[in-house]
């Protein structure tokens, strides 16, 4: 083969390659990059980066990698691959599970059909794992240490009840896909077992104070539903921070059924609570 023919073939191949790249670049001008998704982007010079899409238009895109923010001209992109949706994995092999810690306050009330009680504050701390069934939906089982109870007051005496539980919640979360900040709704149920009960009586007239074990008055288990919402802040692909508000509604009668005198005096008792907690999720 003569040098002229070789040169001619090389020019044809070069033109075909340029045409192919131009076609790909033309496609990327209309490529539907979604803010909040993670992409792997390859440029014409062979450089590759992966990160969250912060902004995109017909001229350029802005990508937040693990360590730096890049502004990339669309004309230089030859390939883009979706890695995950809204920072949450689409692939079962790409970390579909997060683990987390939370802590905050529970504002509890033991609801009775015969007495009006006041709210009592307590601690709510726990651990959990979150399993993503899709980019925006997840199941979240966990274990909490939570303080419930109530306060009853009249002109004579103030009675404070503190019931500590080990709680096993299962929540279902639905995220609203926004960039960086993701509001979410949550609903689920819980089962809890009692750890301890303490009760105090403070008499207003005599200033007498009594504290005693109230285990004889309350059942050992509780069951209920909970629902609420919150906001998740995406710190990085590996770490999220969140704040959540929950309302819990117990359906169990926690007054011991074998203590007829106690039941006759206060009737049916069930737990209520408003929980405000914050925490961290990580891979």
So how many helices?
2
* Arithmetic mean pLDDT: 79
Helical/strand content category: mainly beta
For the terminal residues, how far apart are their CA atoms?
59 Å
Helix/strand order, N-terminal first:
HEEEEEEEEEEEEEEHE
Q: Per CATH, which architecture of the largest domain?
A: Beta Barrel
Question: Which fold name is given in CATH as the topology of the largest domain?
Answer: Porin
Strand tally is 15
- With strands numbered from the N-terminus, the spatial order across the biggest sheet is 7-8-9-10-11-13-14-15
Low-confidence stretches: 18-27, 86-94
Kindly give the count of domains: 2
**Roughly how many Å is the radius of gyration?**
29 Å
Strand content: over 45%
| Main beta-sheet strand count, sense and barrel state | 8 strands, antiparallel, barrel
**How helix-rich are the residues, as a percent range?**
10-25%
How would you sum up the global shape? elongated
Identify the CATH class of the largest domain.
Mainly Beta
Structure description:
There is one protein chain. Helices cover 12% and strands 60% of the residues. By secondary structure, the protein is mainly beta. The strands form 2 sheets. An 8-stranded antiparallel beta barrel has the order 7-8-9-10-11-13-14-15. Strands 4-3-2-1-5-6 form a 6-stranded antiparallel beta sheet. The longest helix is centred in the N-terminal third of the chain and has 27 residues, at 3-29. It is elongated and about 115 Å long. Mean pLDDT is 79; it is low at 18-27 and 86-94.
């Amino acid at each position: 083969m003569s040098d002229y023919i070789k040169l001619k073939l090389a020019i044809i191949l070069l033109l075909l390659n340029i045409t192919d790249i131009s076609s790909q670049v033309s496609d990327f001008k209309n490529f539907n990059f979604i803010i909040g998704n993670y992409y792997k982007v390859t440029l014409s010079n062979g450089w590759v980066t992966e990160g969250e899409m912060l902004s995109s238009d017909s001229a350029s895109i802005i990508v937040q990698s693990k360590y730096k923010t890049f502004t990339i001209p669309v004309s230089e992109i030859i390939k883009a691959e979706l890695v995950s949706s809204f920072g949450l994995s689409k692939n079962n092999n790409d970390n579909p599970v997060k683990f987390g810690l939370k802590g905050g306050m529970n504002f509890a009330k033991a609801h009775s059909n015969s007495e009006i009680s006041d709210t009592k504050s307590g601690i709510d701390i726990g651990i959990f794992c979150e399993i993503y069934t899709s980019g925006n939906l997840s199941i979240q089982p966990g274990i909490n240490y939570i303080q419930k109870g109530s306060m009853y007051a009249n002109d004579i005496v103030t009675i404070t009840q503190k019931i500590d539980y080990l709680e096993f919640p299962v929540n279902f979360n639905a995220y609203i896909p926004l960039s960086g900040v993701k509001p979410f709704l949550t609903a689920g149920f819980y089962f809890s077992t009692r750890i301890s009960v303490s009760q105090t009586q403070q008499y207003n007239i005599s200033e007498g104070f009594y504290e005693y074990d109230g285990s004889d008055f309350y059942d050992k288990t509780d069951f209920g539903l909970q629902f609420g919402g919150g906001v998740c802040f995406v710190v990085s692909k590996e770490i999220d921070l969140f704040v959540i508000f929950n309302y819990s509604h117990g359906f169990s009668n926690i007054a011991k059924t074998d203590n007829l005198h106690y039941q006759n005096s206060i009737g049916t008792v069930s737990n209520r609570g408003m929980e405000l907690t914050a925490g961290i999720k990580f891979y």
